[in-house]
């Protein structure tokens, strides 16, 4: 029962991480304009994501514009897009695989060892998808930090970490932790793959070695 609970907890955490990955990719707040330094106009906030850039005015009006061309984007942006999409793809695949191996489902219920192996594979795919998202968000964040600390970057062109980037970090961590819980619960329950075998009891030989009719 404890292994089933740990398995369910891991699946829920990984599923929340999967939803967080989708939200992180869709949101435009991967980096936000910085207000550090002098002569900064605070009436206008600029956000930039993986697909669009937005400008928010102090009146509450927000205007967004999609990036014109994929070929005009730098290599960091293109790599981040590819890694995040791959992370969502593998995490979605992990949900399908892990659900087949969950103890609360009836798929492969007659073969406990096979069911545990399937759940372990699903947990491993979750970990792989989380690592892809972690690499993408860390790479993007490192680029923001380098540009911010570069003395040749204009003050009005400096950006800081956005809320969507933090969401991506958290979602990647949930996928990795949830996948680890799935693998751990299945490894603990691998030895209890089925009920113990029962062998027929042998009849005791008659005393004295005599046969009675």
TrEMBL record:
Keyword Transcription regulation found: no
Source organism of the structure: Polypterus senegalus (Senegal bichir)
Family to which this protein belongs: Belongs to the claudin family.
Alphabetic keyword roster: Cell junction, Cell membrane, Membrane, Tight junction, Transmembrane, Transmembrane helix
Record's subcellular location: Cell junction, Tight junction; Cell membrane
Chain segments carrying region Disordered: 191-213
A Pfam family reported for this protein in Swiss-Prot or TrEMBL: PMP22_Claudin
Name of the gene this protein is made from: Cldn1
The protein's name: Claudin
Keyword Membrane appears in the UniProt entry: yes
Cellular component annotations (GO), alphabetically ordered: bicellular tight junction; plasma membrane
Transmembrane segments: 6-27, 39-59, 79-98, 118-141, 161-183
GO MF assignments: structural molecule activity
Function summary: Claudins function as major constituents of the tight junction complexes that regulate the permeability of epithelia.
Membrane topology category: Multi-pass membrane protein
């Amino acid at each position: 029962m404890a292994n089933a609970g740990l398995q369910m907890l891991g699946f829920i955490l990984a599923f929340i991480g999967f939803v967080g990955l989708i939200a992180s990719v869709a949101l435009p707040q991967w980096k936000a304009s910085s207000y550090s330094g002098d002569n900064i106009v605070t009436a206008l906030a600029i956000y930039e994501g993986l697909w669009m850039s937005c400008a928010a005015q102090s009146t509450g009006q927000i205007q967004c514009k999609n990036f014109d061309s994929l070929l005009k984007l730098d290599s960091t942006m293109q790599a981040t897009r590819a890694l995040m999409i791959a992370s969502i793809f593998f995490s979605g695949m992990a949900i399908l695989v892990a659900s087949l191996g969950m103890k609360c489902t009836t798929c492969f219920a007659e073969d406990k060892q096979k069911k545990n192996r399937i759940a372990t594979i699903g947990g491993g795919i979750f970990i792989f998808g989380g690592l892809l998202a972690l690499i993408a968000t860390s790479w993007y964040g490192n680029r923001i930090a380098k540009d911010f600390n570069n003395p040749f970057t204009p003050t009005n062109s400096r950006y800081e970490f956005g809320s969507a980037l933090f969401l991506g970090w958290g979602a990647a961590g949930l996928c990795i932790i949830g996948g680890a819980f799935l693998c751990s619960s299945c490894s603990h329950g691998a030895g209890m793959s089925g009920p113990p075998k029962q062998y027929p009891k042998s009849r005791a030989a008659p005393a004295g070695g005599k046969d009675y009719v």
